[in-house]
Amino acid sequence: MQSSTVPEHFIPLAQSELVEFLCADPSLTEGEPRLFRVLCERIAATYHREYHGRSIELKRAYLPFDPDNDMALLRKLTAGERQARLNELSSDFAWLLERAGFRHLSRAEIEPALERSSEWGIRMDVDFSAFEYAAVFARGDTMQLRDCRRWYKIYRAEEVEVPIYRRLVLILKLRRHPRLRGPIDTENVYLKIFKDIPKLDVLMLLPGARVRLSRLDRGKIGLPLLSGLALAAWNVLQDLAAMLEHWAASPNAMWALAAGGIGYGYKSFYS
Description:
The strands form two sheets. Strands 1, 2, 4, 5 and 6 form a five-stranded antiparallel sheet that branches. The protein has a two-stranded antiparallel sheet with strand order 3-7. The chain has helices at residues 15-23, 32-62, 79-99, 107-110, 215-248, 251-270, and strands at residues 3-5, 103-105, 124-125, 131-149, 157-174, 190-198, 210-211. Strand 4 and strand 5 form a beta hairpin. It has one domain (3-211). By secondary structure, it is of the alpha+beta class. It is built from six helices and seven strands; from the N terminus they run βαααβαβββββαα. The longest helix has 34 residues, at 215-248. The chain is elongated.
């Protein structure tokens, strides 16, 4: 599977390999590669110290919202303190992800997927009012080759280019909403990380997303279902008519049928 990469801010190179590649430059004099490696180590140590401090701040801000946290809080936060922590958390996450090469996706970039779908996906309907807070970050805006089978080509496999995100991060805080069924956790903030997601299928990852069927899709599902139900009902009525005709000729069979019906009704009423 190959892919053609669109130029962007993120450079997918490992630090160690980049340093060794630069040190192998034949134009460097003796001793310069060693000095360059020392410089790189000091720069890496400086960034490590800075990001370690921000990591501690991020963990502190996320602690009251972590659904996997198994540590007890010594003091319960007030509603105002929780909101302040949530604002701090969203700011810290945005800062960290932007420095990791991620880009925040706006609603204008996500909503076109409501009207279209990828070769393998389906159109979705998402109500964004189901989220108290929602942010989507992406990295690796590429075109990737994937196998596709179309009906008008007799389902022969062919390669098509699909726009994807190599990495996708969702940060979500839910609120009670008719779209979200069952027990809903409205207190915590959820972090989800995905890879190689087609751009038009991003909405499928959001909680409460519903399938948005076209009239053609409804016809493909509804017509076979209705015809099958009608055929089944016709067969059942024919069999029932034959059974009633047989039982009518036997008074004992009719009494047994009546007694069974009364017994079932009695049991259903008292249960």
